[in-house]
Structures are given as C-alpha cells and as structure tokens.
Amino acid sequence: MTRVLVAALPVITLSAQTQTPATPPAAPDACPEMATALTRLLNRDLSLRDWANVARYREMNRSLAAPAAGEARVVFMGDSTTDAWSNQARFGPFFPGKPYVGRGISGQTTPQMLIRFRPDVIDLKPKVVVILAGTNDIAANTGPMTNEEIQGNLQSMAELAKANGIKVVLSSIMPTAAYHAASNATPQSTLRPMPRIIAINDWMKRYAAANGHVYLDYFTPMLDAAGVMKAELTNDDLHPVAAGYAIMAPLAQAAIDKALR
User: Fold this and answer.
1) CA neighbor of 189 nearest in space, from 201, 200, 177, 197
2) pLDDT digit string, tens, across residues 120-140
3) 58 vs 102: CA distance, rounded Å
4) pLDDT score of 90
5) Whole-angstrom Cα distance, residue 49 to residue 53?
6) Which of 42, 62, 187, 214 is the most buried (most CB within 10 A)?
C-alpha cells in the first residue's frame, strides 16, 4: 500500500489594522502547486471581505442625526439607479427640502441589499423605505438567480421593514432596451430580458397589495411603442438620464405620500 505524506499548510494571518494579507510563507521547492495555491489565496479580491459593501455608508450613517420629532424620513434602498439619483452634481437636488436619504450602491443585487438592510435602513429610523432592486439579480451580477430567489429577498426586506414599523414602497424594475448597444456588446434587453422583468413586477404588485405595501410603477411610463425603455430616457438602455428621473421623482413622491397615509 502506498503511503502519501501531506505537509501541513502554514497558518495565514491578517493584520488587524490594515486587513492586508501577510507575506506568504515560503513553500517547499518541490511543491510549486502549493506556492501557486497560497499566492492565489492571499491575493483574492479584498472586496470579498465586505461582499455587501456595508462599509460604504458606515460613517455617513454614524454622522446622520436621528429624525427630528414629526420628521418623515425616507430611505431609498437600491442599486446604481438609486446611487446616481442622489448625486446632485449630475441630476440636481435630490428631493429638495425633504428628509430623504439615498442608500444605493451601484451593481448590487438583492442578497447584498438584504445584508445591509439593517445598518442602511432600519437603524436610520425612517418612516418609509423605497426599495428598487432586482435588475442586477436578473443580470447575474453576483451569480445566477431565479425569479423566486429575487422575490424571496424582496419579501425578506419588506418583512424586516414591517417588523420595525417602517412603511414599504416596492418599486418596479425598470424596462431595458437595445437602442444604444455597441456592435460588440450584449444588449441590456438580452442581459435583462423583459419577460423576467415583467414577471417579477407582476409578482411585486400582487405581493404589495396582499401585504399592505405600496407598489411604485416606474415601468409603464418608461415604455415606448415597441414595449422597451424609451430611447430618450437613457443613454445605455438601462440607467435613466435626467429625463428619466424627471418621470420617476413625482411617482416616487406620490407613492411615499400614499404609504404615509
């Protein structure tokens, strides 16, 4: 019988202050495979240590004062569309005069938002949360997701909000198109197929009605005669430009008003 000797792997430590990998220990010359494996392990993307990017708003959350008496704070939770919306340099004031807080992170999916829902929503003590999510799940930004898995994460966020006395506005996933796709790029309408968007939106509308939430329909007003996003509302067939946000803002405000009634 052949006996196989396995060398013990060295312990890998991280600096508590810098969170940078320690210097990889020298591997035996006779085992280049071990050296390669250790190098790959130590050089993994550091972002995996904060997969949900909870640190993005940590300091802003700490410095945000508690809502004043009678203040109807609203938190917008979402992905790049929400992230960009509160960028006043690009799109002007974000609901001027309103105590509204943007907590979007570009590229995020519903499981990532679910992880940061407590620090970025619940702990801020809003009266209402406006959730806009799902398009990046369909595009598999963090891996393949079924419609049911996306819906489950949206439902979990809504349940967390409700359990903490926060009114819920569930925003429809916006349409995509292929008007601006480069010849060598996959169109957004392929990455984010309209049938999946429609199916999740239909579920969202039913779920909101059955659970006392507000359904916010961005989808329908953004459609053109071909049934995709209007070309003038986007420059990449996915994200709204100023004209798109001009449609969204009054719809969001009406949904917030309804939730507060």
Assistant:
1) 177
2) 999 999 999 999 999 999 999
3) 13
4) 77
5) 9
6) 214
Dihedral sign of CA atoms 11, 15, 20, 23 in order? negative
* Residue among 169, 166, 168 at smallest CA distance from 252: 169
Asked if residue 117 lies in contact with residue 157, where contact means CB atoms within 8 angstroms, the answer is yes
Res. 72: pLDDT tops 60: yes
Measured CA to CA, the distance from residue 78 to residue 241 in angstroms comes to 17
CA distances from 202 to 45, 172, 215, 221 (A): 37, 9, 10, 15
What does each C-alpha distance from 160 to 17, 117, 157, 246 come to in angstroms? 33, 8, 5, 30
Give buried/exposed letters for 62-79 (b at 16+ CB in 10 A, else e).
eeeeeeeeeebbbbbbbb
Q: Can you list the alpha helix ranges (DSSP code H) found in the chain?
A: 32-42, 58-63, 80-85, 88-91, 110-115, 117-120, 135-138, 147-163, 188-191, 194-211, 242-260
In this predicted structure, what is the pLDDT of residue 179?
98
C-beta atoms surrounding 243 within 10 Å: 13
As a whole number of angstroms, the distance between CA 85 and CA 98 comes to 14
Q: Flag whether pLDDT at 177 surpasses 70.
A: yes
| pLDDT of 68 strictly over 70 | yes
Query: Which structure tokens are listed for 27?
Result: 């591997």
What's the sign of the alpha-carbon dihedral 178, 130, 255, 87? negative
Task: At 43, list the tokens.
Answer: 């050089």
Closest to 161 measured CA to CA, from 124, 110, 207: 124
Cβ atoms of 181 and 237 closer than 8 Å: yes
Confidence at residue 87, expressed as pLDDT on a 0 to 100 scale: 79
